[in-house]
Write a structure and sequence with these properties.
alpha+beta, OB fold (Dihydrolipoamide Acetyltransferase, E2P), 2 domains, 6 helices, 23% strand
Length: 243
């Protein structure tokens, strides 16, 4: 008498598990790629970088676990529309180049002259040499209000932003201040008086040297940089400032 070996159950492709592996693994790969290329700073404060890296490795682990179910004996389910929504952030992250916030975002937000107010409230201490202050520190000093800044020397780096309220010989020099991520970014900047400054390319990075003076903007006197030199520079590796 002979016995027959039990037949193995047929396995088929589990499309749901496959799609989840692609989404989890792809998102992890995207985050790690941006980290290795130094692009995460365009999105979040550097203090959160390691959290994102750890999260990416957790996603990779989840993808590896789900990979075991790609071939299944019960694979009748098909992916629903919700997976398309989950895939959208991944597609945007791949297709849209990483770039820092610029002048186009300021068009909706404007330059925040009080971006350093929170630091002023915490009695932020600045170096006595004003040529070492960045735009956030200048915003802080101006927010304090009881410091005589007139004729103080200025040496700052930022990008060019044109406001319709300024004349042809003026522009704003701006840096974004990031507290948590780019979504809460506020533009800290000062108007600059410079011959034909309105002709400088938008979003170009410049080093502005001069001294603090004043100018009229919409009928009100405001602090401004009276520039002695304005020279083009390359964008800093990290274009943001942090409180």
């Amino acid at each position: 008498m002979t016995t027959q070996a039990p037949s193995q159950e047929a396995r088929s492709l589990n499309y749901v598990a496959l799609l989840e592996v692609i989404l989890l693994g792809g998102t992890a790969a995207l985050l790690l790629s941006k980290w290795l290329r130094g692009l995460l700073d365009y999105y979040i404060h550097p203090r959160y970088t390691m959290l994102i890296v750890v999260a990416a490795f957790v996603l990779l682990l989840m993808a590896a676990v789900r990979l075991r179910n790609v071939l299944s004996t019960n694979a009748s389910r098909r992916p629903g529309g919700m997976y398309l929504l989950l895939a959208l952030p991944l597609l945007l992250g791949v297709l849209v180049p990483a770039q820092p916030l610029g002048a186009d975002t300021l068009s909706g937000r404007g330059v925040d002259a009080t971006a350093g107010a929170s630091l002023a409230n915490r009695q932020f201490q600045m170096d006595g040499d004003s040529t070492r202050w960045n735009l956030l520190e200048w915003s802080t000093a101006l927010s304090i209000g009881d410091i005589d800044l007139l004729d103080k020397p200025v040496d700052v780096i930022g990008f060019v932003y044109h406001d319709k309220q300024l004349d042809a010989d003026s522009f704003y020099v701006v840096r974004y201040v990031i507290t948590c991520c780019s979504a809460d970014g506020a533009g800290a900047g000062l108007p600059v008086v410079w011959e034909n400054g309105g002709a400088l390319p938008v979003d170009s990075w410049v080093r502005v040297q001069g001294k603090i003076g004043t100018m009229q903007i919409v009928g009100a006197e405001q602090a401004a940089i009276v520039a002695s030199t304005v020279e083009p520079v390359t964008q800093p590796d990290n274009p943001y400032l942090y409180p």
